[in-house]
Structure formats: structure tokens, C-alpha cells
Amino acid sequence: RKLVGKLTTGCTEFDEMMGGGIETQAITELYGEFGSGKTQVAHQLAVNVQMDKEHGGLGGSVIIIDTENTFRPERITQMVKGLSEKYGMDLNPEEFLQNIHVARAYNSNHQILLVDSATDLANELKEMGKPVRLLIVDSLMAHFRAEYVGRGTLADRQQKLNKHMHGLLRFGDLFNACVVVTNQVMAKPDAFFGDPTRPVGGHIVGHTATFRLYLRKSKGEKRIIRLVDSPSLPEGEAVVAVTMAGLTD
Ligand code: GTP
Ligand code: MG
Predict the structure, then answer these.
(1) What is the pLDDT of residues 86-145, one digit of tens each?
(2) What is the value of pTM for the model shown?
(3) Helix orientation angle between 73-87 and 38-48, rounded to the nearest 10 degrees
């Protein structure tokens, strides 16, 4: 078994709450309502992971499975400029963008298949000296929610989802990579998981995700991130800010 790596969030409190950063060989779930900052955190991690160890990164590349077409290259550029200023370095946004491989998932079956394609690509990139150290699924549940509607379809959905989650875990183990998934909190109570403050996906996502982080809006740029579930760390909260330069203290 490889040594677990830790990827900086770029935020002091957030890193501390995570015991140093986002772990490799684990699934970290970001959940919260729309606009809470899930996609912003995912973008920031896609930048940070490319930094060297000294700067909290894993010196790796990224694969993003994008289900809602929310990947924004311009935002990556802003964040790279933010890091350039933070560390007084001359980082090239184009190079960062070249190491982010984005695949659109058109439906839930396609999304599941893309994990296999990601594995093939990660094997190629490893040979090329560009190991994939971060796999993002943004959003994990959007297609599943849209496609599996009503009580009769639940068992089928959970079976597919279970397969998907285990595919993601396997990827994390195989490449010693962080796996980060986003999940929206239900706006109205779900027929099965009634509590509107709980993420969708029920017990499958809940039991397979290693770390669960609940994001919520605070004043202005501030966001509060709560560590809800972790195998070893205490529960806690961290305040971060989503600024022009990216995710900051
Ligand atoms: P859903 O995907 O709709 O569930 O939301 P989400 O949790 O992914 O929210 P997202 O990460 O997209 O956060 C949106 C918020 O981030 C916006 O309301 C802004 O506050 C902030 N944000 C997004 N883009 C930028 C940007 O380019 N600059 C700055 N300063 N803030 C941004
Ligand atoms: Mg989003």
C-alpha cells in the first residue's frame, strides 16, 4: 500500500481540519446547496494538485468528469495568477490548463464508463511522467437524480451508484489519487431520504465517501465548510473565502 498523500486546499483552517489536506486513496464528498462553492473548491484543487510538494501539491495532473458543463478554464487562469502572487512565482496558466483533462458525461451510464476511460488515460499519463493525482466528479448525482425518478427505480439507481462509487475508490487506490465528488443538497425533501439538509444518494454515497464536507454560504465571499464524516478526524468547521484569486483564508 502506498503512503497516503495530502493535497492542500490553500486555506489554513480548512487544511488543519482535514489533518493537513485532502487525502489520496479516498473519496472526499463536497455537498451543499447551489452556489455554496463546491465547483469553486474543485477548480482550486485542480490547480493546487499541480504544485510541488513544498507548496502543498502532489505534482500531478487532473481528470474532471463534468456532468453539468460547469468547468471554466478562465477561472483556472485566475486561480493560477492568484497562486503566482501568493508564492511570488511566475506560473504559466496555459501549462496548468494542459494538465487538466475534462470529459463531459452525457448521462449516468456514460459517467460510469468515463471512470474506465479515466483509468486508461491515467495509465498513459503515468508513462509520460504526468501522473494523475486528482479525479473530480462534478456533479456526482445530477444525472442519477434526473434519470431515476420515482420509487420503483431506486434499487436500480443505488446498484449503479454503488458500482460507480467503487470504480472511483479503485481509481484513487490505483493511482494514489484524491477523488473529489460534488453533491447538491436537495431543495425539497426527497421521497426516500426526506431530510432536506442531507445530500442525495442515500446510504450508498454516505458509506462509500471517506470524507464528507458540508459547504454553506456565509457573509459575502465567506463560506463555511463543516467536516461531517471522517474515519479518524474530529468534526469541525473552517471558514474560507471565494475571491478573485481563488479559495483563500
Ligand atoms: P451548484 O453547482 O449550482 O450546486 O453550486 P456550487 O456549490 O458548485 O457553487 P459554485 O462553486 O459554482 O459557487 C458559485 C459562487 O462562487 C458564486 O456565487 C460566487 O460567489 C463564487 N464565484 C464563482 N465564480 C467566481 C469567480 O470567477 N470569481 C469570484 N470572485 N467568485 C466566483
Ligand atoms: Mg457546481
Answers:
(1) 999 999 999 999 999 999 999 999 999 999 999 999 999 999 999 999 999 999 999 998
(2) 0.95
(3) 60
With the most atoms of ligand 1 within 8 angstroms of its CB, the residue from 29, 36, 40 to mutate is 40
Ligand 1: centre distance to CA 39 (Å): 7
Which amino acid is present at 186? M
> Which grid cell is 162?
454503488
Distance from the alpha carbon of residue 128 to the mean position of ligand 2, in angstroms: 31
- What is the rounded CA–CA span in Å between residue 103 and residue 32? 23
Say how far apart CA 84 and CA 92 lie, in whole Å: 9
Omega before 117 cis (within 30°)? no
Counting ligand 1 atoms within 8 A of each CB, the residue from 29, 30, 39, 66 with the most, and so the one to mutate, is 39
Q: From the CA of 11, how far away is ligand 1's center (Å)? A: 17
The ipTM (two decimal places) reads: 0.99
Q: Give dist(CA 171, CA 177) in Å, integer.
A: 7
Atom of ligand 1 nearest to the CA of 68: 2
